[in-house]
Specification:
Layout: H1 2-15, H2 18-33, H3 41-60, H4 72-93, H5 101-137
Length: about 140
C-alpha cells in the first residue's frame, strides 16, 4: 500500500502547480471583464493555497484507478469521495459557494452529474481503445 501512497504524493506534487496557474488566469479574466473587481491579499493567498491543494488531491486521487486488486466500484467510490471532499472544502473555504444546505445540495447534484458523465466518457473511450488494440493483436 505504501507504493500507492508514494504514487499519490508523486502525482500530486507533479501537477499541483496547475491549480494556482488556472486561478491566476481566472482572476486575470475577471479583472478585465468585471468592473471594480478587487481581492484582498488574504483572498488571493487563500485561493492560491486552496487551489494548489485541490490540484494536488485531484492529481493524486488518480492512483485509486491503478490499484488492480480493487473492484472498479471501490476505486471509483474512493476517487469520487476524495475529490468531492476536496472541491467542497475549497469552494466553501474561498466563499465561492456559501455554506448553506440548499446550495451544497445543488453543488452536490451538479458535481455528481458532471463526475459520472466524465467517468462514462472515459470508460467508453478506454473500452473502445482496448477493443481496437485487442483486435490488432489477433
Amino acid at each position: 500500500m505504501t507504493k500507492y501512497v508514494k504514487e499519490f504524493f508523486h502525482r500530486g506534487l507533479m501537477f499541483s502547480g496547475f491549480g494556482p496557474i488556472i486561478l491566476g488566469i481566472i482572476y486575470f479574466i475577471l479583472s478585465k471583464t468585471v468592473d471594480n473587481f478587487a481581492l484582498s491579499g488574504g483572498e488571493v493567498l487563500a485561493g492560491i493555497v486552496s487551489t494548489y491543494l485541490l490540484a494536488f488531491v485531484q492529481a493524486g486521487a488518480t492512483v485509486f484507478n491503478q490499484i488492480e486488486h480493487w473492484p472498479i466500484s471501490k476505486s471509483m467510490l474512493c476517487h469520487l469521495s476524495t475529490i468531492y471532499v476536496a472541491y467542497s472544502l475549497c469552494y466553501v473555504a474561498n466563499t465561492w459557494i456559501p455554506f448553506e444546505p440548499k446550495v451544497l445540495w445543488i453543488f452536490t447534484i451538479i458535481f455528481m452529474i458532471v463526475y459520472f458523465v466524465v467517468w462514462g466518457i472515459v470508460y467508453i473511450s478506454i473500452k473502445a481503445t482496448s477493443k481496437n488494440f485487442n483486435a490488432k493483436l489477433k
